[in-house]
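Example 178, ligand methionine sulfoxide.
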Amino acid sequence: MTRPAAAAKTPPMAEAFNDKTLPEAKAERYAAVAGEIAAVLDGEPNLTARMATVASMLASSFEDYFWTGFYVVDPDKPDELVVGPYQGTLGCLRIAFGRGVCGTAARTRQTQVVEDVHAFPGHIACDSRSASEIVVPVVDAQGRLIAVFDVDSERPAAFDAVDAEWLERILLRTFAGA
Ligand code: SME
């Protein structure tokens, strides 16, 4: 298919990714996207560029990703998350540590897999269409918490241990160089 002229500005690698046919099985799909993310980000040190690329590439790879993005630790308020690069409908701007699913992931530094967000105490409903979510803490090479990565789905119980394992792996590799 011929693409419109405006698309010609897209760098070749990103365009190749958008046209890619990914494997059907979830784990294989994550493995393929993980390799693509590493290839696109090779040599790019800017944190915003890295976060925006991870959010875009994962959001465009999975049907269940309705809202996909980062809440970063605010350098001026270390107990507060502020919205970072994301794909999806308007997200809340700030989340205190300990509040909702993102705040719980930040405080505990544990991945949160929530099958039914409405049953989660203190869940913050930025968009009422969200039914389930996964939030993964993001650390840098020194092990410091820099953000959380939040994915919301319109489908209940959309995320499981496969999502947790692969997202943890992708985020460690991308932000801690591990
Ligand atoms: N679901 C999150 C809030 C952020 S948004 O849904 C974009 C939470 O409860 O932490």
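Summary: DSSP finds five helices and six strands in the chain.
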